[in-house]
Amino acid sequence: MTRTPPTAQPAGQETGRETERPGARRRVREALARARALWRDLTGESAYDRYLERYAREHADCPHRPDGAHGSGQGSGQGSGRASGHGPMSEREFWRARAEQAETEIKASCC
């Protein structure tokens, strides 16, 4: 009995689950990434990331830095605002300033 070799499929035309898996996995990963981003936004966890993005955008052309970045981020922080010539707050400083602001800015109205 003579065996015939399997017929080769043209490139990119595999059959069955072989072609569906990478696309399906990618869609699942993208859906999970969107869900994670939404969860981080709802819980406030992404606030520091947004702060860093805004800081980079607003201080991109800062004259106080030779390489386009502020200093090391060390130095005297003044509440939620930093003195000119310093880098962005560390994550720890950011959350402390945010908590302090929430405690000091009490809204008296109900609506």
Automatic annotation (TrEMBL):
Pfam families: Sel_put. This is Protein of uncharacterized function (DUF466). Coiled coil: none annotated. InterPro entries: Sel_put. Residues 1-27, 61-111 are annotated as: Disordered. It comes from the Bacteria. Residues 1-12 have a biased composition (Polar residues). It comes from Actinomyces viscosus. Residues 15-27, 89-111 have a biased composition (Basic and acidic residues). Transmembrane segments: none annotated. Residues 70-84 have a biased composition (Gly residues).
